[in-house]
Design a protein that fits this description.
This protein has about 600 residues and is of the alpha/beta class. The strands form five sheets. Strands 3-2-4-1-10-9-11-15 form an eight-stranded antiparallel β-sheet, with helices on one face. A seven-stranded antiparallel β-sheet has the order 5-6-7-8-12-13-14, with helices on one face. It is globular, with a radius of gyration of 25 Å. The protein folds into three domains: about 5-240, 4-Layer Sandwich (Glutamine Phosphoribosylpyrophosphate, subunit 1, domain 1), CATH 3.60.20; about 250-440, Rossmann fold; about 450-590, Glucose-6-phosphate isomerase like protein, domain 1 (Rossmann fold, 3-Layer(aba) Sandwich). The chain has 20 helices and 27 strands. Helix 16 packs across helix 20. Fructose -6-phosphate (F6R) binds near residues 346 and 398.
């Protein structure tokens, strides 16, 4: 994964790079480094640890120069060591590079270059790139990069500097890279938040493109060396959105941003009984009526959103829906034809498995509509059409506001299809829209219970295990609650359909096993869930229930209650997940965990 940034301009590069790379720490945080060039020399500092820790050790501000590159690493090839941290330099110490991606043929290249006398100091795949560039350098940095790239197999987002050149060369293939266009200065970065303090003008590099950035201009080329014209986009995020704004963690801020994020996802898309997503979805009425199968592909939390979407779509649109782990989809020769609609869901738009699934679906003739948060991302650009979630930058590694916004978009698609197919009469659409509009205020009221949820976190943060159970449309919420807890607090947690408990997990239940039930009143399996709760209680389990306000039946039989307001059955998950996000957050914080950057995880999983 890793985050990379580069700067060329009139200011000292190291300070700018340090701030920018911190904004990308969600992409990786096991080591960090910066290289600059000044006076015909490359200056470089790097070490293991999070960026602030590394900065304390090495003091990046000592690096002078107004051209530089920086990297925050999530180790893929080679252990977490200082030598393996980026930037990497060639034998002559005149070229330095940063890389995000994986070079698949690095062993062969290593052998070839070593035979030619290149000395390697790291275990990384990246180091072959810098030696390859060095090997092909004949006075023109861009030309050397172009020759080197043609020999690489795999993915890369690259930043390259040379001590004799006043330029920064960048390239991308299957790893994200944007160019920030400034006034008398230019930037490269893995993601937009890194450069928002300096510019909102962005160029999205495509695969197999190389850019040469100078202080006062830039040019983009194909691998054939031919110049390409690129459009400059204006991004609508601002830098304050990428700051904590007084919250202790990004995750907490993002949980609290959910009413606003959901409002943004609805804005301009509903009016009375109209769902206005026709242009975004890019499908004609005729095409929609012909859809006989929907396949949703996604990973992690986005996959859980897909599972909720399956309930929504099958219930209201009467089309069979399958939800696939994107990582499995393309390895099992899926049956897809032109009447199959594939919906890819991804916050980052860069998840390698989801991107690969999307490509496979397109190859087989399916239309791919994606639900994406990050504009300009690979999934955004490769889909037939995209419906944005408009949740704003999500920086905490654990996804929260992107999830609830994805559910809103899935709901919009569902009601839109239902209306077009004549399954939802006008009156029902109007009611569905009314239900949707209730959400932001209802979400706000759940968030106001934060102190009460925190009190419960204090009771449970020292436990070692937890079980999350739900049925029907709330079963994916049980999965999501368990995922949130385990990924940020490292407490082992399992999500199960409540009735499945009897087929195995019930053996785990004793007084030390907290069991979280989603037991909302409007759920059609409500009565069955009550029985499942009784089964846990009679085996000594401690039950925490997410329940509908005013429901005394659940209250009577459980140990702890979190209430959510009532809404229609298919919108309940959007409310039910909030107490679970907060519970996981407060537990992780009480345990002193690194909430925004949990160990081993990265925000955008751009490797398969
Ligand atoms: C969990 C989480 C991950 C992501 C998954 C897919 O909190 O954030 O499970 O949901 O890596 O990421 P996107 O949605 O960016 O494709």
């Amino acid at each position: 994964m890793c985050g990379i940034v580069g700067y060329i301009g009139g200011r000292q590069a190291s300070g700018i790079l340090l701030n920018s790379i911190k904004r990308l720490e969600y992409r990786g945080y096991d080591s960090a480094g910066i290289a600059t060039t000044i006076g015909g020399k490359i200056l470089l500092k790097k070490d293991i640890g999070k960026i602030d820790e590394v900065d304390k050790k090495v003091n990046f501000s000592e690096l002078k120069g107004d051209i530089g590159i920086a990297h925050t690493r999530w180790a893929t090839c080679g252990k977490v060591t200082k030598d393996n941290a980026h930037p990497h330099t060639g034998c002559g110490g005149k070229i330095a590079i940063i890389h995000n991606g994986i070079i698949e043929n690095h062993s062969e290249l290593h052998e070839e270059l070593a035979e030619k006398g290149h000395r390697f100091v790291s275990e990384t795949d990246t180091e072959v790139i810098v030696h390859l560039i060095e090997d092909n350098y004949k006075g023109d940095l861009k030309e050397a990069v172009l020759v080197a790239l043609k020999k690489l197999e795999g993915s890369y987002a690259l930043g390259v500097i040379h001590s004799d050149h006043n330029e920064l060369v960048a390239a991308r293939n299957d790893s994200p890279l944007i160019i920030g266009v400034g006034d008398g200065e230019n930037f490269i970065a893995s993601d937009v938040p890194a450069i928002l303090d300096h510019t909102k003008k962005v160029i999205y590099l495509d695969n197999e493109e190389v850019a040469v950035l100078k202080k006062d201009g830039l040019e983009v080329f194909g691998l054939d060396g031919n110049k390409r014209e690129k459009e400059v986009h204006e991004v609508d995020w601002d830098s304050t959105q990428a700051e904590k704004q007084g919250y202790k963690h990004f995750m907490l801020k993002e949980i609290f941003e959910q009413p606003q994020a959901v409002t943004e996802a609805i804005k301009g898309r509903v009016e009375d009984s109209n769902i206005m997503i026709k242009d975004e979805i890019g499908l004609s009425e005729e095409q929609i009526k012909k859809i006989n199968r929907i396949i949703i592909v996604a990973c992690g939390t986005s996959w859980h959103a897909g599972l909720v979407g399956e309930f929504m779509l099958e219930e209201l649109v009467d089309i069979p829906v399958e939800v696939e782990y994107a990582s499995e989809f393309r390895y099992r020769d899926p049956i897809v034809d032109e009447n199959t609609l594939v919906i890819a869901i991804s916050q980052s738009g860069e998840t390698a498995d989801t991107l690969a699934a999307l490509r496979e679906a397109k190859k087989k003739g399916a239309k791919v509509v994606s639900i994406v948060n990050v504009k300009g991302s690979s999934i955004d650009r490769e889909s037939d059409s995209v419906i944005y979630t408009y949740a704003g930058p999500e920086i905490g590694v654990a996804s929260t506001k992107a999830f609830t916004s994805q559910l809103v978009v899935l709901y919009l698609i569902t009601v839109y299809f239902g209306k077009l197919k004549g399954l939802l009469p006008e009156e029902q659409v109007r009611n569905r829209v009314r239900d949707l509009r209730k959400l932001p205020l209802q979400m706000q009221s759940v968030l106001e219970e934060k102190d009460y949820i925190k009190l419960h976190a204090e009771k449970f943060y020292q436990r070692k295990n937890a079980l999350y159970l739900g049925r029907g449309i709330n079963y994916p919420i049980a999965l999501e609650g368990a995922l949130k807890l385990k990924e940020i607090s490292y407490i082992h947690a399992e999500g199960y359909p409540a009735a499945e408990m009897k087929h195995g997990p019930i053996a785990l239940i004793d007084k030390d096993m907290p069991v979280v039930f989603i037991a909302t009143k409007d759920d059609r399996t409500y009565k069955k869930v009550l029985s499942n709760i009784e089964e846990v209680k009679s085996r000594g389990g401690e039950v925490i229930a997410i329940e509908s306000k005013g429901d005394d039946d659940v209250k009577k039989i459980v140990d702890h209650n979190f209430y959510i307001p009532e809404n229609s059955y298919i919108l309940t998950p959007i409310l039910a997940v909030i107490p679970l996000q907060l519970l996981a957050y407060y537990i992780a914080d009480l345990k002193g965990c690194s909430v925004d950057n949990p160990r081993n995880l990265a925000k955008a999983v751009s490797v398969e």
